[in-house]
Amino acid sequence: MLVSHQQNSILKHESLLVKFLTKYLSRVDSDIYFAKSSRCVTHSFTKTATVLSMANDGTLDALPVVGLAHNDDKKIPRKRVYAWAFWDWATQPFNTVLITFVWVPSFLTSTFFLDPDVVGTAGEEVALGQLAANLGAGITIAGLLIAFLAPVLGQQADRTQRQKLQLMIFTGLLVLTQLGLSFVQPGQEWFWVGVGLIAIGSVFNEIAGVNYNALLVSVSNSKTVGKVSGLGWGFGYLGGIIALATVVGLILSGVLQGDSALTFQLVALGCTIWTVFFVIPIFVSVPEPKTRQVGEKLGLWGSYVELGRSVKRLYKEARPTFWFLLASAVYRDGLSAVFVFGAVIAGIVFGFGFTDLVIFGIALNVVAGISTIIAGRLDDRFGPKNVILVAVFGLVACTTAVFVLVDLGTPMFWAVGLILAAFVGPAQAASRSFLARVTPAGREGEVFGLYATTGRAAGWMASLLWAVFIQLAGNQAIYGLLGIALVLLVGGVMLLFVKAPARSPR
Q1: Would you tell me how many other CB atoms lie within 10 Å of the CB of residue 407?
Q2: C or N: which end of the chain has fewer Cβ atoms within 10 Å?
Q3: Domain spanning 23-496: which superfamily?
């Protein structure tokens, strides 16, 4: 994907993006990055509970910002913020190019990996379906590994104050996984190698993401966490767009051949180079969070015992955080399903081909990226809970609209799809911001590990209801949208009852 003569183009994209974001943030320089705290924030669960119980003015209706308070009286260099955000940019092609739009759907689950005697026969469709099912099994196993490993690894990173080191290790493992994909050959004997690499890459990516999220407290403060979180998501979307557009451009121009296995091997190699190139800034410029030491390193079993105690303490002493983890697990499953099954709806119901789908995906990511960056300002002004609620209920309205207006055809799907994309990114970024605001200092990795775990634990709901509604409707795929809408609705209603974190005075 990224041959040598493409490097200058990438650097130009990076420069233009930084200039745009610099202009965007310049109006609020002193307010955003050089803000000082106007109130004192407690640094422990117990003291936080005491502050809340003593508040008598009605303004502290939830946990205040805690770990973030370490930066309220410090200058945060803009370079550090951009360096942090570029990790999202660097790793996004694994999801956008390799999993969602190019390598998996057009290579791994294609006729490249079927018995040649089956290709072109009546059994081809069934055989392709079996490939997709086997891929799903591999991803399910990866999800279980993430659910078991993410919280304890995050907890251990907190105890040793090594979140940046863990981020480096698991990002490096992700790079090696992507490199491995470039060696996968067509043929049945290579299929499970490809599935295994995609699955283990998902594990490495998710665990690295836990530590990346925990480093949010190193690049933001109680007044800017929403903007910075949104910036990271925006960088991710825009990076995915440019990577995907590069692949599509090379294929459409004839430089790469869409029906050649070599093309997909080069795409995987290009994604590897992309990640290596753009992860450098975060490891050079972003420090470990400066928080208190929470304890000695535990073994694996001891970590699970401590995890159980942590969940119990979380319920008793930081209940808004506990309930937010549950509510967000539900609506985040709906968010994931929107993109995963939206592509299925586009192909089956509205007749999108490969090129149509990729162009549609680029458009969705452009809208999502821009809206996410803009929504970061709304997050800090109105609070992350309000941003999430508007986004989630907006998604409910959009998915329902596609179902009701299906007879209007492709123009309607394009219009509603773009509106829908404008809600997805803000919901994701504001969720990370919400959690950062209610996470106690020194426990960022543990809580964000629980965030990953609860999301995986609820990851079956939308897909199950998708299948159930389709079955009840006589295998009409459009009815699956009602299942997704229901999951989003339940998650949104649950969030209504979660107390919002107190916002810092502007």
Answers
A1: 6
A2: C
A3: MFS general substrate transporter like domains (1.20.1250.20)
